[in-house]
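Board notes (copied after class):
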Amino acid sequence: MQIAENSVVAIDYTLTDDSGAVIDSSTDREPLTYLHGHNNIIPGLEKAIEGHTEGDEIAISVEPEEGYGPYRDELVQDVPREAFEGIDKVEPGMSFRAESNAGPMTVVVREVGDDTVTVDGNHFLAGKVLNFKVAVRSVRDATAEEIAAGNVEAA
């Protein structure tokens, strides 16, 4: 069976950056199982594996526009230190939920000054080419419940 919209697909994958460093992998875990065609994985990966079948092994490079988007400088902002009132110690690398004009988002602290804290609202993989090695483990038709839910987990 070929991977198409409303297929339940299980894949093993390894994700690396351009230097070959492993970012994520399903090694030593269960395969990633998702409902194809319902925006459950990044668009570039979903497009690249469509039409493949169980047993296929694929090497895929996904450009930022089809992954986590380009890095956007406007998502890096200095906010007043008072915005972190009640938090004992704010350090680079910490993440927080923040309200934005587009709704809630996660920001990561990049720098802490005396009066301001620099936060970054970009996904940590924004602006990066994503290199996947994918092995298709199984493909099946989705159930009506899975299609109605839009994913495998909620069905």
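Comment from the instructor: Strands lie at 7-16, 22-25, 32-35, 57-62, 76-80, 95-100, 103-112, 116-120, 130-141. The helical segments are 43-49, 144-149.
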